[in-house]
Each structure stands twice: as structure tokens, then as C-alpha cells.
Amino acid sequence: MHPRDLSDHVAYEAGRGIEEVARELGLDPDDLVKLSSNENALGPAPKAVEAIEAYAPSVHTYPKSSAADLRERLADRHGVTPAQVWLANGGDGALDYLSRALLEPGDSVLVPDPGFAYYAMSARYHHGSVNEYPIRRADDFEQSAETVLDHYDGERIVYLTSPHNPTGSEIDRADVETIAEGTAEETLSLVDEAYVEFSESPSMTDLLADREDVAVLRTFSKAYGLAGLRLGYAVVPEAWADAYARINTPFAASEVACRAGLAALEDEEFLEQTLETAAWAKEYIRDTIACPTWASSGNFVLCDVGDGTAVAEAAQREGIIVRDTTSFGLPGCVRITCGTRQGTKRAVAVLNDLL
């Protein structure tokens, strides 16, 4: 017996963790600074931690009421109905739900190159094929409706990322509307807003008030510091929101995750500190590092270091973990997550010595 043909599938390559690098290099984990996975440098929202501790004794129960409460809270925030909020086990879980709801075998999707690998992975898991549109370094990674539509060929889902990972660029609201207008009625324009809290641009969830062909992806992993709990969601058009009940994995968002999410939404002081820290770190990196960088609306900076693999490996030996972006198709670069002031300064100093 064998699994189905998985030759078109590739493993997701995550940023390396502190424990992994420490064991490999024989270093003390406490001496390492991890700036490779765009995690929140301040940790989780304190109110979320309190909720995790408070609800830990209740993990023997299914999260039905907490999930309903969180969907209602998010619906209020985004001006939609609770049915339009599809909670999931992380943003990647929401991507799977959308693929499950929309893709028939043989359908295709259009993804950015470079971009988040799981867009294509999720489509292939659901028997879809994948086409790409470029986000070009020569254009400073500008995102435009013209480029997307030039490569559009009737795909069922068009993936848009704003802010874009790993470059930090954004796509204008007008371009999203142009793409939605310029694609077929049965094509979904999906805007991934995993990093939108760090941007000065507003969310595009309000587009759903007038459109049935736009959806938005959000997560608690970045700004709220809950990456380890795996909590994300999609905001979908009201016309087909009831599909969630038919494709939802039972209780995918756990009791602890839902309660932590509810608490994190109320921790405005923590969110403000997170955004201030990221803004300072972005400015410091771009002003201080001895290599070209690109403007970023996320909590990271893409840096042109010449040889991303060599620099990332050398930095690890000095206790600094940054992301080699070769797997994104950008072998000359590394991506640096915005850290604390101390961690960011140390990282830049190490990288400048290497450069």
C-alpha cells in the first residue's frame, strides 16, 4: 500500500527554531536571538496568557461556546455577520477551508511568486493546480492589478498578500477592486492580511459589504503573539458563508485558543506596544544595516546581503537566527523579523560584521 502520488508536493520550510539551532551548533539557547519567523518579539498578549491559565482546567470540553463568542466578537469588529467569520487552526487552516469550499478537482489557483508556500500547497492538497504571477525584484516588489490580470487565466482563487511576505510590499485597495472586476464571476480574490496590523493601511474587509468575490484572511499569530496556539480566520462573503458548516473540521479552533483570542482582542495596550516596537525595529534595521533593504509594511525587513544562505548560516554561528529567503526564490536576501530593541541591535551588529 502507498499514499497517492505526492510528487508535485513540497514540504513547507519554516524558519529555524532556537532549540534546533542550539542543539546543532552546541550553543546555549538563552544566548540566541531568533528573528526568522516573524513572531511577536514581546511574546503573547498578557491578557491572553491569563485566559490560557484560567481556561486550562476546561480543556476537557469542546470549544463550542467560546468559538461562537469569538466569531461574534470578530464579526462586530469587521462589520459582518458571525456566519462570515470562519475560525480555523491558524491562517493555514483557513486557507484549507477556502480550498475545500471552492476547488473542484482540476481547478486552478493563481499565487504570487515569491509568496507564502502554503497557498500552492493547500490548493494541491485539494486536487487543484497552481499558476503564478510575479512580484518582481526589478520593480521593488510592487504589486499591481495589471500584473495579476496579465497572468490570470480563469483561476478559481487569486491569492493577494498585503502586506506581502517576505518583501513587505502592499497592494492598493483600488487594485484589489480592479482584480475582482477583471476576473470571472466565480473567481475569488483572497487577500491575506496576516500582517495588516503593522501597516498604516486599513483592512479590506469592508469590501465584502458590496462584493461576493472577495475574502480576507487574518491571524492571531503575529500582532497578538499567539503563533503557538494556531488561531486564524477568514472573513467571507455573506452569500456563501453557510458553507462553513459543511466543510469545517469539528472544533478545529481549541477552547484555549478561542479564549486566548477573545482576551487578546481586549489587550489594546499590548497591541500598541507591539506596533511601536516593530516600527522602531524596522526603522533601526533600515537605517543601520550595511546593505540595501526594501520598505516594509510588515513586522520584518528584507535585506539584500548578496548570499542569503551564507550570511544566515554565519549569523547562526554568532547566535542570530534570520531567515534565508532562498526558499522564496530570493537567494541573495535574508528576512529579519522586528525584534526587541536589544535583540534587533545585536542582530544588526552581527550582520554588519559579516557583511
Describe the structure.
37% of the residues lie in helices and 15% in strands. The protein is of the alpha/beta class and 355 residues long. It folds into two domains: 18-44 and 268-354, Aspartate Aminotransferase, domain 1 (Alpha-Beta Complex); 46-266, Aspartate Aminotransferase, domain 2. The strands form two sheets. A seven-stranded mixed beta sheet has the order 2-8-7-6-5-3-4, with helices on both faces. A four-stranded mixed beta sheet has the order 1-10-11-9. Helix 2 packs antiparallel against helix 9 and helix 6 (145-151) runs parallel beside helix 7. It starts with 17 loop residues before the first helix and ends with a helix. Keywords: Amino-acid biosynthesis, Aminotransferase, Histidine biosynthesis, Pyridoxal phosphate, Transferase. It holds the Pfam family Aminotran_1_2. This is Histidinol-phosphate aminotransferase.
